[in-house]
Specification:
It contains 19 helices and 14 strands. It is of the alpha/beta class. Helix 6 packs across helix 7 and helix 18 packs across helix 19.
């Protein structure tokens, strides 16, 4: 069964007939006899499309439409009515409905609308991902021999479905390499899904990768798709793969071998078509020798290894990188693109002798900080040392808990919760659905917390 479809109609006959037609076409069907019941279902079940009757008691179809679009703006909705009017159809489309079909339902028209809605939803999701990717550093800067070799390997590996493992220190751009491989591959029109294996607790990694069914564990209040399922047809990027536990490694090995898995708490075997790219800053053969990484998984992942050199090994690219980041920051600040400072010869000597332990990330932060802290057209060695040296300034250790150390426990918990919600709202540009997803909350729960803390979202 594929693409769960929710039918919201107070007439059992309509739900039964429409449900039978959709089931015959291979869709999974969920039914609701009222708007309130439907909103409850949406909080716990994964739904890809909704059929919504206009005329229902208690909560009318247009009210349900508004409520759904408020919390699930990307969910396509097809309105159905036996008493349709032009003005009603126009109003529904303006409120966000994808289509408006009349009763009695034409099977051909209904199925065509379903296919169009699902295709439109997939394209919208793809466009959103592309827009979001514009905010990433998606340009590989470097013309030296080391970077030319990396670019050649990217081009060669992109033409295949072979698994790739990207090796290198933190801050060298391993994720960028993975995205470039995906962008140049035949899977580029499908999702690129990233998993930071180091950031997910071992108790949650299996659910994160493979999803879970409702009730699989205490906090599993609804069905959830995992990263393997979300990446179907595209690329799954396992960042910091060497930080996974041996138990999780065994699960990943099986999924990679068979491209089949079950959600946590589920019995249905799901099949996917996913290309796996992994990355790590660790010495994997050493990790294997110490018993911290499965040798069989290493050989599965290590079909095409790509080593991304640290900045100290590609100093010839430093002028290109400096020029790129200066222009990028100026453009983002809407200043003149070419109005960038330049370094004196002594300053350049200092930059080239610096070992850049943080690699490209350290260089980027240094240049951004420099633009903020000085208005000079020319940067000398002394200024460079001062601004770059701030990265290594020794100061008294500051605990992340510092803001809450003098508060009672309950006050500290509320202050932290409020601060986290406000930060996630800013990160997601005050989009409630995205913010709720980032926090692991349902949108309705997030609305309650916003009201509780008096947080304004009208930005």
């Amino acid at each position: 069964m594929r693409n769960p479809i929710l039918i919201i109609d107070d007439e059992p006959g309509i739900r039964s007939v429409l449900g039978a037609v959709l089931s015959d076409e291979g869709f999974s069907v969920v039914e609701a006899s009222s708007g309130l019941e439907a909103l409850s279902i949406l909080k716990t079940d994964l739904i890809d499309l909704i059929f919504l009757d206009v005329w229902m008691p208690e909560m009318g179809g247009l009210d349900v439409l508004k409520a759904v679009k408020a919390d699930w703006p990307d969910l396509p909705i097809i309105m159905i009515s036996g008493h349709s009017k032009i003005d009603m159809a126009v109003r529904a489309i303006k409120e966000g409905a994808f289509d408006f079909v009349e009763k009695p339902l034409s099977i051909d028209k209904t199925l065509a609308s379903v296919q169009n809605a699902l295709k439109f939803s997939a394209l919208s999701r793809e466009n959103r991902e592309l827009r979001e990717s514009l905010f990433l550093e998606d340009t590989m800067i470097g013309e030296g021999p080391a970077m030319q070799r990396v670019k050649e390997l990217i081009q060669q590996s992109a033409a295949t479905d072979s698994r790739v493992i990207v090796l290198g220190e933190n801050g060298t751009g391993k994720e960028l390499v993975a995205r470039q491989i995906h962008r140049q591959s035949q899977r580029s029109r499908h999702p690129f899904v990233e998993v930071n294996c180091a950031a997910i607790p071992d108790s949650l990694i299996e659910s994160e990768l493979f999803g879970h069914e409702k009730g699989a564990f205490t906090s599993a209040v609804g069905r959830r798709k995992g990263k393997f399922e979300l990446a179907d047809g595209g690329t799954l990027f396992l960042d910091e793969v060497a930080d996974m536990s041996l138990h999780a490694q065994a699960k990943v090995l099986r999924a990679i071998q068979e491209m089949r898995f079950e959600r946590v708490g589920g019995e249905t075997t799901l099949a996917v078509d996913v290309r796996v790219i992994s990355a790590t800053n660790k010495d994997i053969p050493k990790e294997v020798g110490n018993g911290r990484f499965r040798e069989d998984l290493f050989y599965r992942l290590n079909v095409i290894p790509i080593y991304v050199p640290p900045l100290r090994e590609r100093q010839e690219d430093l002028p290109l990188l400096v020029d790129y980041f200066f222009k990028k920051f100026r453009k983002e600040s809407k200043a003149e693109v070419l109005d960038v400072p330049h370094f004196t010869s002594d300053a350049w000597k200092f930059l080239t002798e610096h070992t850049w332990p943080g690699n490209i990330r350290e260089l980027k932060n240094f240049l951004e900080r420099l633009l903020v802290m000085t208005d000079n057209d020319e940067i000398d060695a002394e200024q460079t040392k001062i601004i770059l040296g701030q990265s290594f300034a020794v100061s008294a250790p500051v605990t992340p808990l510092q803001p809450w150390l003098n508060m009672p426990l309950n006050d500290a918990k509320e202050a932290f919760e409020r601060a986290l919600i406000e930060e996630k709202l800013r990160e997601n540009r005050y989009n409630i659905s995205k913010t709720a997803q980032a926090l692991g909350l349902y949108p309705s729960n997030l609305h309650s917390k916003l009201k509780k803390f008096g947080i304004e979202t009208g930005k």
